[in-house]
Amino acid sequence: MSITYRLATKADKKDIARFYKSQHYSASFKGFDVCLLALNKGDIVGIAIISLLEKTAYQGFLHGVVVSTAFQRQGIASQLIQRVIESTLATYPTTKSTTCFIVPKLTPLYQSLHFQPINADQLTDSLSQLLYTRYKSYQKHEPTLLAFIKSHQ
Which one-letter DSSP state was computed for residue 119? Predict the structure, then answer.
């Protein structure tokens, strides 16, 4: 099996929506987005998105990281995350950090990629106002949600 990676285009939107629906996952584009696809024989088997909620934002928001069950535990998520960060920095070079919100069981994956947990008392200092508001909203539905950040400086 040979996995290939490429940036998504507008022409991929329907396939992306179909993939997320098939994985019982809800994700959408949030603003200024960089979306990376993992493909097996031309079919989407994984996706990762980084959104800048404002064009001048210095903080990217990593979300929508999903890999098909049959392709998990093969390093695809790690590759997607690393590559979407590289693509984001190439597209938006003023991005100083990438933030994500994760469930606790994903902590080892994100720490292996040099993301650091944000302590509860540091959330307002570490997150932009838009991301902080989003985090609090998501946390209502997933109380164990954790915030992580990776600096690009």
Answer: P
